[in-house]
């Protein structure tokens, strides 16, 4: 017995347009601009280094030196990624004397990471 799924199961066997459903959904869809902004947001998250940095910052405020030591990366490489994350409003920073500390910009960033890991079943 074959374990392959029948590809026809995912395709309607007839064409019926449900105008009421289409109109209801159309009214609820985000604007094209909002969809493009969300796509850009996910592009920024589509990098394992940035996810590692965000994951670290979801646990504590950290300086570049600490992040680079934790992730075994150069301070220059970490600074570059932090700059991109800050431009995208995913992280914020504060200066205390000569040290600049980074943290997540808001609670939603931690929530996005958590939901993503939950979806993948990777939460330990």
The assembly state of the depicted protein chains is single chain
pLDDT averaged residue by residue? 91
As a percent range, the share of strand residues is 5-15%
> The CATH topology of the domain at 48-124, please?
Arc Repressor Mutant, subunit A
Can you tell me the CATH superfamily of the domain at 48-124? Winged helix-like DNA-binding domain superfamily/Winged helix DNA-binding domain
User: What is the succession of H and E elements?
Assistant: HHHEHHEEH
Care to count the β-strands?
Answer: 3
Structural class: mainly alpha
The CATH architecture category of the domain at 48-124 equals Orthogonal Bundle
Q: Which ranges are low-confidence, i.e. pLDDT below 50, for 5 or more consecutive residues?
A: 1-5
Name of the CATH class of the domain at 48-124: Mainly Alpha
Would you give an account of this structure?
With 124 residues, the chain is mostly helical. The protein has helices at residues 19-28, 32-45, 48-57, 64-71, 75-87, 107-120, and strands at 62-63, 91-96, 99-104. A 3-stranded antiparallel sheet has the order 1-3-2. Strand 2 (91-96) and strand 3 form a beta hairpin. It is elongated.
């Amino acid at each position: 017995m074959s374990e392959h799924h029948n590809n026809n199961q995912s395709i309607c066997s007839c064409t019926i347009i449900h105008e009421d459903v289409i109109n209801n959904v159309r009214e609820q869809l985000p604007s094209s601009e909002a969809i493009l902004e969300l796509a850009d947001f996910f592009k920024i998250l589509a990098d394992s280094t940035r996810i590692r940095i965000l994951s670290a910052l979801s646990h504590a405020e950290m300086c570049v030196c600490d992040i680079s030591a934790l992730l075994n990366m150069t301070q220059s490489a970490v600074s570059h990624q932090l700059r991109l994350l800050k431009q995208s409003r995913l992280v914020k920073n504060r200066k205390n004397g000569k040290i600049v500390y980074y943290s997540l910009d808001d609670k939603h960033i931690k929530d996005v990471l958590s939901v993503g890991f939950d979806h993948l079943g990777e939460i330990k």
